[in-house]
């Protein structure tokens, strides 16, 4: 995904905006590490985590906790609640990876973070918004969404949104949010 691209117009006049500032402001070498995984959907988030040196574990977490990120024996570990829906697990993993990429120093300083089901960690709202925007770019890359939406014509219907959500491995709510950004 080219971080310098402008709004991507597609054949049916839907518009997909460029990636978030959180994505475009990542160091070029970090973006290069991630970009090779953003060319297909659903994006292989586990492969991104592995490439970044982050261990991912499905775990039984306290009720209402979607994910956690912290260090264990010097390594970064993301724990995802095994009892949540698959698409929820995917977004939680993307969200925690975003925290790793954007807020690693704070995570270390504070001894790790837990996210509730609303992906709130008790951190300032701007930190959560940043993580959500980058997570959205990871699970629904703008270039891939532009290509996918070009396959449809006519109005944005619930059926189109459901199909796109299924193809990207996200919830319809996540897809609606991404499409509202357009």
From TrEMBL:
Q: Which InterPro entries match?
A: IrrE_HExxH, Rad_response_metalloprotease
Q: Where do the IrrE N-terminal-like domain residues begin and end? A: 49-179
The protein here is known as: ImmA/IrrE family metallo-endopeptidase
């Amino acid at each position: 995904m080219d971080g310098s691209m402008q709004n991507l117009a597609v054949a049916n006049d839907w518009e997909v905006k460029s990636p978030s500032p959180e994505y475009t402001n990542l160091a070029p070498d970090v973006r290069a590490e991630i970009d090779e995984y953003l060319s297909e959907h659903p994006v292989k988030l586990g492969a991104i985590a592995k490439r970044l040196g982050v261990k991912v574990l499905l775990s039984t977490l306290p009720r209402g906790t979607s994910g956690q990120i912290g260090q264990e024996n010097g390594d970064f570990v993301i724990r995802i609640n095994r009892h949540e829906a698959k698409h929820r697990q995917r977004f939680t993993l993307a969200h925690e990876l975003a925290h790793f990429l954007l807020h690693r120093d704070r995570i270390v300083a504070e001894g790790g973070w837990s996210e509730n089901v609303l992906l709130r960690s008790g951190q300032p709202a701007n930190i959560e918004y940043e993580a959500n925007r980058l997570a959205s770019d990871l699970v629904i890359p703008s270039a891939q969404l532009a290509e996918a939406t070009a396959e449809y014509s006519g109005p944005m219907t619930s059926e189109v949104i459901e199909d796109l959500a299924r193809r990207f491995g996200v919830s319809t709510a996540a897809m609606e949010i991404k499409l509202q950004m357009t």
